[in-house]
Every structure is written in structure tokens, then in C-alpha cells.
Write a structure and sequence with these properties.
This protein has four domains: 53 residues; 93 residues, no CATH class; 73 residues; 90 residues, no CATH class. The chain contains eight helices and 15 strands. It is α+β, with helices and mostly antiparallel strands. The strands form four sheets. A six-stranded antiparallel sheet has the order 8-3-4-7-1-9, with no helix packed on it. Strands 2-6-5 form a three-stranded antiparallel sheet, with no helix packed on it. A three-stranded mixed sheet has the order 10-11-12, covered by helices on one side. The termini are far apart. Helices cover 29% and strands 26% of the residues.
Length: 378
């Protein structure tokens, strides 16, 4: 069907005037202030309203032209929900000045970033050796001055991903515990899936409905949460031995160290998707740390520290976006630095793990940023 054509207000009035004039032998008055012009303009306004309704209806007819909740309702017909936003999580370190008595960090203790914009709550981790089921908290024995505990953000979205050293306020009563800090960044916070990402996943979802295919396995894991990834390797086991009729999937929640809950969910999802009689395994990736150092020249008029921070964040984001088995090209670091800010005029002394070589990716290995050090040239 050909796309409909629409007219603006002036075109509608002109076309009506021409049509009326063509049907009359005598000149019809359509001058400013005439009744005929007023009638034509009134009809044109109604026609514009009807055109608007038509455009609105047409937008609903295709997923590509729907947005927001309209797109959600369109996709709901196919039982294909949008991926929800998620909070960040990670570890913080509670410390005390004196350790002459036993200390406790109860589950439910809240902490905030130094600027007070983000808050986090201590959660249970039975895998943490400091956790006490009886006391429902993390114990600091006599002589121990600090303890690592897991926290989860109290809000959701990428804004809850905070950098190391930004959490520093204890907002609950913790007798005998004096300070808190996060040595590592808190990650995993994600905004609700964008319309563009939602639409991009839809063809893969439809193509995967046959089940049992590589695409079906990857899609079902990617649908668990934002940032989830899956790379399936066929006919070999995790040790590299040829094993026909077997595959293993390397799954990740985007952090490189997926949680036990995520791994369990991935196993269940793959179990319900794999072909009957096909054996499989599900493993987490092996993280290869990338230590990056470089020096940049900053253009006049730019804040040097700010540009260095932007470059550092851009490189970290790029490296952490690499998927299982992907290579980190040495030359890509300079490109990312240049692209990060128009204030970068030169990039020198790039080192990746102390060398000027790529980090080659292989299946079951994922490269993540360990440290990114950006210095500014004088």
C-alpha cells in the first residue's frame, strides 16, 4: 500500500477554493473576511484534525513507528517484554578505629555517596565468611578493623553505578564501626531498555522461536536482564576436547563475574530452550584484566582534569563492552581517547598490560578494565 499523502492548512484552503471555483461559472468570492473563505478555513481545520488522527493510527500499525508504552503494548501481543531497569551492586569496606571488641554490620545498614545522591543497603551473602546467620550481619572479630560486605543500590538505573571512593557516609546505626568506602566501582545498574534496543532485539526473538538454535540460546540469555550476554561453543568441551553433540555457553551479566542467581537463571533458561537429547554446559567467563596507561595532550581552554576523566571513563566503558572471546586491539585505545573529547589533541605512550600489543580474546575469556591511568602532557 502506498504511503498516504497529507496537506497543510494553506493547501487545504487553496484546493477547496479551486474546486468550488471550478464548479461555478461566475467568480466566487474567497477574499479575506468573506463567508466562503471562513467556511473553507473551518473545514480545513477539521481536515487537519482528521489527518492527525490518521497519523496517530498509522503509528500504531507498525512497531517501527511506535514509541514508549505504545511500543510495549504492541510487543505484548508477542509476549516480548521490554527489559527492566536494574540497580547497581558491589562491595563496600566498613572500618573502625579501634578493634578491642567485636563489631557488627547488620544486614539492612544503609550507606550513601559522599554527595548524598545515591544510597545503598547491605544485603545477605552467605558466601561471605564474615556473615553470621545468628546475628544477621557481618562480624568484625576482636583485632579485625575492617570487613567487606555486599550492597545493592536503593534506586535503579545507570546513575547508581558509582566510581571507587565515592561512597563514604553511614546512614544507619553501626556501633563500633566508624567509616565506609568502596574500593571498587559499583556496577550492574542499567536504565530501562531503549526503544531502539527493544526494536533491535525483536527480529532475533522471532527468529529464535524455533528453539534449539544458537540464536535461540543467545536470545533467551540476553532476555534475562539488561547487559546479559551469551556465547555458545559447539562440539568441544570447556577444556577444548572434541565432544560431538555437546555445547557449552559462556554467560555473563555484563560484569565479568555473574552472580550465582544469574547463573542459575541462565541454566534454567537454556534448559528450556536447548534441543532434546543435546548435552550442554553453562559456565561463567574467565576475566582477563586490562591495565591501560596513556598520556594525552589537551587543547587550550579545556579543563585538563575533566578531559582526562572523560577519556578514562570512555576507555573503561569500551573495554567493559567487549564480549566473550573478543580481542582488545592496542590501536583502539588511542582512537577511543580521541573520540572521547574534542579537547584531546594528542595521544602518546599507550600501554596495554605494560606492552604495545593486543590482548587476544579466546572463547570463555572476557576482557575487563582493571585500571585506566590517563596522564596529561605538559
Amino acid at each position: 500500500m502506498a504511503a498516504p499523502t497529507f496537506q497543510n492548512f494553506a493547501q487545504l484552503v487553496q484546493n477547496m477554493s479551486a474546486a468550488v471555483q471550478a464548479k461555478n461559472g461566475a467568480l466566487v468570492d474567497f477574499s479575506e473576511g468573506s463567508e466562503n473563505l471562513a467556511f473553507a478555513e473551518a473545514v480545513a481545520m477539521v481536515a487537519l484534525w482528521l489527518e492527525g488522527l490518521a497519523v496517530y493510527a498509522i503509528a500504531f500499525a507498525r512497531a517501527q513507528t511506535c514509541r514508549g508504552t505504545d511500543l510495549d503494548s504492541w510487543m505484548a501481543q508477542f509476549s516480548f517484554p521490554r527489559l527492566s531497569p536494574s540497580p547497581s551492586s558491589g562491595d563496600v569496606v566498613f572500618s573502625r578505629f579501634t578493634s578491642t571488641s567485636t563489631g557488627l554490620v547488620p544486614v539492612g545498614t544503609t550507606v550513601k555517596t559522599i554527595d548524598g545522591t545515591q544510597s545503598f543497603t547491605v544485603v545477605i551473602s552467605t558466601a561471605n565468611t564474615s556473615y553470621s546467620t545468628t546475628l544477621n550481619g557481618y562480624v568484625l572479630p576482636i583485632g579485625i578493623s575492617q570487613v567487606n560486605v555486599p550492597v545493592v543500590a536503593n534506586s535503579i538505573g545507570s546513575v547508581t553505578n558509582v566510581q571507587p571512593g565515592t561512597i563514604g557516609l553511614i546512614t544507619s546505626e553501626t556501633p563500633g564501626v566508624d567509616t565506609v568506602n568502596n574500593v571498587t566501582a559499583l556496577t550492574g545498574g542499567a536504565d530501562a531498555e531503549t526503544d531502539e534496543s527493544y526494536l533491535a532485539r525483536f527480529p532475533a526473538y522471532i527468529a529464535s522461536l524455533s528453539k534449539g538454535t544458537r540464536l535461540a540460546i543467545q536470545n533467551i540469555v540476553a532476555s534475562l536482564q539488561l547487559g546479559a550476554e551469551c556465547n555458545s561453543v559447539e562440539n568441544v568441551d570447556t577444556a577444548g576436547n572434541v565432544t560431538y553433540g555437546y555445547f557449552y555457553s559462556v554467560v555473563d551479566d555484563g560484569t565479568g563475574t555473574p552472580s550465582p542467581t544469574f547463573m542459575s537463571n541462565a541454566v534454567a533458561a537454556i534448559e528450556n530452550t536447548r534441543a532434546l537429547g543435546v548435552r550442554y554446559g553453562v559456565v561463567a567467563p574467565i576475566v582477563i584484566g586490562a591495565t591501560i596507561s596513556l598520556a594525552i595532550g589537551v587543547a587550550f581552554g579545556y579543563d585538563k582534569n575533566q578531559v582526562a576523566g572523560i577519556v578514562s571513563n570512555a576507555i573503561t566503558t569500551y573495554i567493559n563492552s567487549l564480549l566473550d572471546g573478543q580481542t582488545l586491539p592496542y590501536t583502539k585505545i588511542a582512537q577511543v581517547a580521541y573520540d572521547a573529547s574534542s579537547g584531546v589533541v594528542s595521544v602518546e605512550d599507550v600501554l596495554v598490560n605494560g606492552d604495545d600489543q593486543d590482548i587476544n580474546g579466546v572463547p570463555r575469556q572476557v576482557i575487563k578494565a582493571a585500571t585506566v591511568s590517563v596522564s596529561v602532557l605538559p
